[in-house]
Design goal:
The protein has 201 residues and is of the alpha+beta class. The chain contains three helices and eleven strands, in the order E-E-E-E-H-E-H-E-E-E-E-H-E-E. It is elongated and about 70 Å long. 26% of the residues are buried. Strand 8 and strand 9 form a beta hairpin. The two termini are 33 Å apart. The structure holds fe (iii) ion. Fe (iii) ion (FE) binds next to loops.
């Protein structure tokens, strides 16, 4: 079995929001969301069991969903996707508004407020069937797809790991300034050849 096949299923990237028992806003970056039906509007949201946001949603049965735009900053995905709301206030410093007491990002493509009506437990996740209490278009920009997000990550890794090498003497550029931003009259510090003889390897 090749699980890459699952990555061909289209899905988006979202920020969930919820409010815990101490009245703290929590949230998480997720991709597993599916529209089940539109009349009445119901969607499914899957949250990992290790997630504090999952714990809060399980208890409060309420959550918000912000649909991320294709040009979302990496900072938002980093903030919500790589740390726990148990220890960090992820919403602090974010540009958001409260709807029904739940946070929705201002630059979201759309914002939804959800009420959990049924829960299914899997080995690693809790899957919430939700009634859509309210749905508001936001910027209506192009939404970020999970595929696009993965592609952006791969492209970034490629450019991060590629080195600029002098094709004449083999010198590998390792300066602080990105190679592309060096002035045109910059020359190889070893052999003195111009910037134009450098190639990416
Ligand atoms: Fe050189």
């Amino acid at each position: 079995m090749n699980l890459d096949a699952l990555l061909t299923l289209s899905q988006g990237v979202y920020i969930t929001g919820a409010r815990d028992g101490d009245n703290r806003l929590v949230g998480s970056c997720i991709d597993a969301v599916m529209v089940v039906e539109v009349a009445p509007a119901q969607i499914m949201v899957s949250l990992g069991k290790g997630s504090y946001t999952r714990e809060v949603v399980s208890r409060t049965k309420s959550m918000s969903l912000s649909v991320l735009p294709a040009d979302v900053s990496d900072d938002i995905i980093q903030c919500f996707g790589t740390q726990s709301s148990r220890a960090t206030d992820k919403w602090q410093g974010q540009d958001y508004r409260l709807r029904e007491g739940l946070p929705v990002l201002q630059n979201a493509v759309a914002g939804l407020i959800l009420r959990v009506i049924h829960t299914i437990e899997t080995a690693s996740h809790e899957v919430f069937l939700c009634h859509v209490l309210s749905a508001e278009p936001g910027t209506m920009a192009e939404p970020l797809t999970y595929h696009h997000y993965q592609q952006k990550r791969k492209d970034k890794q490629m450019t991060d790991t590629k080195k600029w090498v002098c094709s004449v003497c083999g010198y590998v550029y390792d300066g602080e300034v990105p190679f592309e931003e060096l002035p045109d009259d910059w020359v190889c510090p070893l052999c003195g050849e111009p910037k134009s003889v450098f190639v990416q390897e």
